[in-house]
Amino acid sequence: DAKTTQPNSMESNEEEPVHLPCNHSTISGTDYIHWYRQLPSQGPEYVIHGLTSNVNNRMASLAIAEDRKSSTLILHRATLRDAAVYYCILRDGAGGGADGLTFGKGTHLIIQP
Amino acid sequence: DGGITQSPKYLFRKEGQNVTLSCEQNLNHDAMYWYRQDPGQGLRLIYYSQIVNDFQKGDIAEGYSVSREKKESFPLTVTSAQKNPTAFYLCASSTLTGFYGYTFGSGTRLTVV
Questions:
Q1: Most exposed: A66, A98, B19, B41, by fewest CB within 10 Å?
Q2: Interchain contact, B100 vs A97, CB within 8 Å
Q3: With a CB-CB cutoff of 8 Å, which residues 53-112 of chain B face chain A?
Q4: What is the DSSP letter of A102?
């Protein structure tokens, strides 16, 4: 899997939008950008994924730069339950296959009440 | 509800003993995975299996063993050869394409004393 770079931690206030950045300058044309998050003492959960166009679902939005070398996960209105570690992962193909995901250290998101 | 069940949630063992962690899924997923997570770190892949009676080593397979006798089950044995077994262990499953994302269990925290 190609490498991604994320800030170690970010802090935001409750009920405000949060923009979590991810740099992936060596992304290939067939790499999809996947985001997972891990709540404290839980397993990771899938958040969203995309290739070129911006994507929205009930959890978040994914904004992908035109050159695809960076992306941003957007939580539109953060709650205390969104405090977690967020992982940005590149995978070849929409699903990426079944040989395991490669996790970096992710971004630890802190939400202040 | 479909999901992955890991048991037990907490496990204590004496040094030198083998211990088996359970992982069961009812999602009808073909692929299953075991990850290890140390404090403040990302997840590292131990073993994965894409089909019954077959499995592949991940990045840190030394000191671990697995079996896949049934599609629903993928137990992990932490052997006495594993030098630093104390960690948070996570099981996951996915379709062979991974298209709908990976589903993770809630983990087993193993402490070896």
A1: A66
A2: no
A3: 56, 58, 88, 90-92, 94-107, 109
A4: P
Contact A72, A21 (CB under 8 A): yes
**Cα–Cα distance for residue pair B73/B24, rounded to 1 Å:** 5
The DSSP line for B8-46 is -SEEEE-TT--EEEEEEE-S--SEEEEEEE-TT--EEEE
**Taking the CB of residue B83, how many other CB atoms lie within 10 A of it?**
7
A13: Cβ contacts below 8 Å, ≥ 6 apart: A78, A111, A112, A113
What digits encode the pLDDT tens for the residues B83-113?
A: 999 999 999 999 988 887 899 999 999 999 8
- Residues with Cβ within 8 Å of A5's Cβ and at least 6 positions away in sequence, in order, are A22, A23, A24
Give the mean pLDDT per block of 10 residues along chain A (113 residues).
Answer: 89 97 94 95 94 92 96 96 96 83 94 95
Cβ atoms of A60 and A88 within 8 Å: the answer is no
Question: With b meaning 16 or more CB within 10 Å and e meaning fewer, what string describes A4-18?
Answer: bebeeebebeeeeeb
User: A66: which residues sit within 8 A by CB, 6+ positions away?
Assistant: none
